[in-house]
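Consider what follows.

. . .
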Amino acid sequence: MIRTLSLTLVATALALPACAQNATPDSAPVSPQTQQQDTQTQPQNATNKPPLQTKSQEGFWGHMNPFARKKWVHRQTDPINDRLTEVDQLSKQNTRDIQDLDKRSTAGINEANSAASAADQKAMDAANRANQANGMAQRAGTRTDATANTVNGLDQYTLVSNAKIKFPAGRTTLTPAAKKSLDEVAAKLDGRKGYIVEVSGHSRSGLQTSDATAAAVTRYLVTAHQVPLYRIHKVALGNAKTADAKVTGTYVDVTLLENSLANQDSSNNTQSMTGGQDGTTQLPTTQHPSPVVGVASSPTP
């Protein structure tokens, strides 16, 4: 009897905690207002969910029941496992987002570098074109200066030689010596360009005689040496005084002038000139002297 009573007391003692654990509610009911306030005051986190609530009482005795069942343990640990799973998923998503951001940043940097390289290339091309344009402008300026020099030199003539063709008194025809002097003058015309021949007649007998002697010289140069008429400038001065000296007798001055541009081209081919007969003299290359004032030249007939 006593033994049976003892077994009954032990079984009752073991059954009471289990019944108390099952009868104890998991949590006290919470009013909606309290829930809303708790939600507003709860800090935000990665899962956007409120933190897990820690229960103040565990079991019938107010502490962890050493005889808790698996169902009760699962009820306590499942929310934790779910929250850990969500955190792991969020971590993976953040990793993917960071990788995607890194890829897009790298692509943007590469695109910016490509754009900068293209801009540098365009700048270099523009600089090269500017240098080419500058070179072309300089060459154009050089050609312009050369053209200006050419234009300025068109009417600049230098003295090549001067020959005095003498005539006997009372005669207007050429002597053999005069023809020889004119042959020497014509020989200097070979290969020359841009030259003119001035033929000025002088005579104490007046304009008629000086014009006749100048015409004789002009006729000989044209017929005997094929000197173009447009290169001969004839003038009869009669007994007018010249800048050199007073007229004595009858003679014709034959002056060979050459344009400065043509003189530059033929400067390497110019040979030294020697004195000729009948007053043919060598003169240094100088600027053409001014014509006699008040005497107009007449075209070659």
